[in-house]
Specification:
The chain has about 750 residues and is of the alpha+beta class. The protein folds into five domains: about 220 residues, Hypothetical protein af1432 (Orthogonal Bundle), CATH 1.10.3210; about 120 residues, Ubiquitin-like (UB roll) (Roll); about 70 residues, no CATH class; about 90 residues, no CATH class; about 80 residues, Alpha-Beta Plaits (2-Layer Sandwich). Helices cover about 50% and strands about 15% of the residues. The strands form five sheets. Strands 1-2-3-6-5-4 form a six-stranded mixed beta sheet. Helix 11 crosses helix 12. It is globular.
């Protein structure tokens, strides 16, 4: 029986009507009873009653009673057919954070299992995402993955929580909408993808697109709606034709067609540089059958009916994706010459494709007697890999880069085989070196060559799907080469290579680090003995996550930590201990007579200088400090006090004599918030892939914000990377950060940073 499904997305969705909590509760119970064998709902009823009483009087920004949110979260979990403990935790997931109830209360009423789930979600809900504070963001993500490792149901509840929050995002302020949508797209969508829960991932993708690129979202919705009947007729004809051939071949099958979700269409348009009219496979045809045997039988029939496009067939049944996804994908040319995609899978495979790991979360023991969570944990090798990286990496920026870049959360994969026939999954573009380290670090460290499909290849060979790889090792190998870091793709390989060098060259790095720090102090006229106090060293170790001082030396020695970071921090601590109150007379003696006469008539620009009043204060042009920046004063000769940012390059390069003229300074509290009548010069560098209209899009951000641009310079490299330096007037650092965040979302922009001076 054919069935064409085309979901219509309204261009202007109506405001959500009031939802009655009791009706939502009845809906939850009805969904639960459809799949759960037990009719006992006493635990659910009890959780609903406790949550309702705990949230009594609380309301969401939509104006609805707060209990509507946990009810909707639980309904999403019931749609995923989760166990009762997860449903209960969904009802209670906000009570510990937002009400008087405690972890102990939950434990006493519902037991350890539910209490641990609620506790895990509560800890994750306290994580605050901020794309500018890399170390803070990375630390939050570390905690998230640790919570997932304890019980994967924690992240499933969190995904349900995020989905309902995204459905009601219209009630948030515009800036909050963008922040939450961006976090969703960068963090939660890839996690849902990795867990295989496409039912949630697809909706999160589209909702994020709706708020991050509303112009694209509504334009797609409008254009797809305009040509809906034409494309629907095309897909219907294919569905009917395929269904007829399946019936004639005696294969029991269900065939349907559905529109692909907006975000996948948008990605295809961007990646392929095409317009919507140039993309024909907006609809996917799916064939559902009872067995794997029928999948391949159906594939044979399809390839007899239509001409397959070479290189566009993927067998995810023989080689499933790491998120357990299985299906046959083939792209074909229709009788009218229009290409389209067909996916063939069993009903069980479809359930796994929609619900991922949630589809395997049973409310009873598995047939082999093992706990289902233990069985599923074995399938989460990528999560264990992340936890291993966390232990190997002390640098948060490195961890975050690895997570977003090479983790395979966001990248394509290649499938290859060991000589024994075991499948290994690696990032697209991986080499035999990546393969070696995927087997074991000892194999990678002793590697001297590789054979692919029985033939010797260069170690930089790019692995193709289906390759059979054999690593050649030798006990006489001197270990990996630093050059390998230039071509390996997997984070695991990069980490293991770096780890080898750090360990093997630790003593050399310690000696080199000592020399680098000593040389830095000497070139800057600093007395290293004054700075090497135990309390200063302890502060630096705590700041950068080291347990011993030799580790700091080693980090400086191998380039993982900049010598300026270490010495400048120690110097700040030294200065605080030896700060002297400077009198007005001591400062004024360096000023000329005219300056002294006019000092009392000059404003201090909202700056408070320790121990000084009524002194001329000016802002340095080299680093352009803004209200909210950490600042320091420098006593000039004849021109009062110049204010610099503490990270100003000029300040960092001062000699010991010049550093003696530095004086503590801070913004007046009222100035930090910024005054509408007072602006300050700021300068930023924008790095982007060069394209037509780039400067127009960048300038538009400033125009819409009402910010005056005072200067703009651009330069393109041979590699096609454009560097745009912009100067403009702004009120404070908060406004600057908001502007930088908007610029980072401009198409082709790689990064935006503030000029250091």
């Amino acid at each position: 029986m054919s069935n064409v499904l085309v979901e219509r997305v309204p261009l202007d969705p109506p405001e959500q009507e009031y939802q009655d909590p009791r009706e939502l509760y009845d809906e939850l119970i009805a969904k639960l009873k459809k799949y759960h064998p037990s009719d006992d709902i006493s635990m659910i009823e009890k959780a609903y009653k406790i949550a309702s009483e705990a949230h009594e009087g609380q309301r969401r920004k939509s104006g609805e009673p707060y209990i509507v949110h946990p009810l909707c979260v639980s309904i999403i979990l019931a749609d995923l057919e989760m166990d009762k403990e997860t449903i209960v935790a969904g009802l209670l997931h906000d009570v510990v954070e937002d009400t008087i109830l405690t972890y102990e209360d939950i434990d006493r009423q519902f037991g350890d299992d539910v209490a641990l789930l609620v506790d895990g979600v509560t800890k994750m809900s306290k994580l605050q995402y901020n794309g500018d504070k890399v170390e803070f963001q990375a630390d939050n993500l570390r905690k998230m993955f640790l919570a997932m490792a304890k019980d994967i149901r924690v992240i499933i509840i969190k995904l349900a929580d995020r989905l309902h929050n995204m459905r009601t995002l219209k009630f948030q302020p515009p800036e909050k909408q963008i922040e939450i949508a961006r976090e969703t797209l960068e963090i939660y969508c890839p996690i849902a993808q990795r867990l295989g829960i496409s039912k949630i991932k697809v909706e999160l993708d589209d909702l994020a697109l709706k708020y991050l690129r509303p112009d694209v979202y509504y334009d797609l919705a409008d254009k797809i709606d305009q040509k809906r009947s034409e494309r629907e007729d095309f897909v219907t004809s294919i569905v009917v034709e395929v269904q007829k051939h399946m019936d004639e071949a005696g294969i029991k099958a269900q065939v349907d067609g559905r529109v692909k979700h907006f975000f996948s269409i948008y990605k295809k348009m961007v990646n392929q540089g095409k317009t919507l009219d140039q993309i024909y496979d907006l609809f996917a045809v799916r064939i559902y059958v009872d067995s794997v045997k029928d999948c391949y039988a159906a594939l044979g029939i399809i390839h007899e009916m239509y001409k397959p496009i070479p290189g566009r067939f993927k067998d995810y049944i023989a080689m499933p994706k790491e998120n357990m996804y299985q299906s046959l994908h083939t792209t074909l040319i229709g009788h009218s010459g229009i290409p389209f995609e067909i996916q063939i899978r069993t009903y069980d495979m479809h359930k796994t494709a929609e619900y991922g790991i949630a589809a395997h979360w049973k409310y009873k023991e598995a047939s082999n007697g093992e706990d289902p969570d233990m069985q599923e944990e074995e399938k989460l090798s990528w999560l264990r890999q992340i936890l291993e990286w966390q232990q190997d990496m002390s640098d948060s920026r490195e961890f975050l880069k690895s997570l977003k870049g090479d983790l395979n959360l966001f990248s394509d994969q290649v499938y290859c085989f060991t000589p024994q026939g075991d499948v290994k999954t690696l990032p697209y573009g991986s080499t035999p070196v990546d393969f070696a380290y995927a087997i074991h670090s000892a194999v990678g460290n002793k590697m001297i060559g590789a054979r692919v499909n029985g033939k010797l290849v260069h170690i930089e060979y790019e692995i193709q799907n289906g390759d059979r790889i054999e690593i050649i090792t030798s006990q006489n190998s001197k270990g990996p080469s630093m050059d390998w870091l230039n071509f390996v793709k997997s984070t695991q390989a990069k980490n293991k290579i770096n780890q080898w060098f750090k360990q093997e060259l630790k003593e050399d790095n310690i000696v080199r680090g000592k020399e680098i720090l000593a040389g830095y102090c000497k070139s800057h006229g600093l007395n290293m003995t004054d700075l090497m106090k135990p309390e200063y060293m302890e502060e630096v170790m705590n700041k950068y996550g080291f347990k011993e001082w030799d580790a700091v030396y080693a980090a400086v020695g191998h380039g993982g930590l900049k010598e300026g970071q270490v010495i400048n921090r120690m110097q700040e601590l030294y200065k605080k201990d030896h700060a002297k109150k400077i009198s007005d007379d001591e400062l004024l003696k360096d000023l000329d007579e005219n300056t002294r006469k006019t000092i009392k008539r000059k404003r201090n620009g909202g700056i408070v200088v320790r121990g000084v009043h009524d002194v001329s204060v000016r802002f340095s042009k080299c680093c352009a400090p803004l209200p909210g920046d950490e600042i320091v004063g420098f006593v000039t000769r004849g021109r009062g006090i110049s204010i610099h940012r503490t990270d100003c390059a000029n300040i960092m390069s001062f000699s010991e004599l010049e550093r003696g003229r530095l004086i503590e300074a801070e913004w007046d509290k009222s100035t930090i918030k910024g005054s509408p009548d007072e602006t300050y010069l700021a300068e930023i560098n924008i790095y982007a892939n060069n394209r037509s209209g780039l400067l127009v899009d960048i300038s538009k951000i400033f125009t819409e914000a009402g910010i005056d641009i005072s200067s703009i310079n651009s330069k393109a490299s041979r590699q096609g990377v454009m560097t745009v330096t912009m100067g403009f007037e702004i009120h404070n650092t908060a406004e600057l950060e908001g502007t930088i965040n908007k610029l980072r979302r401009v198409e082709s922009v790689i990064d935006v940073e503030r000029a250091i001076g």
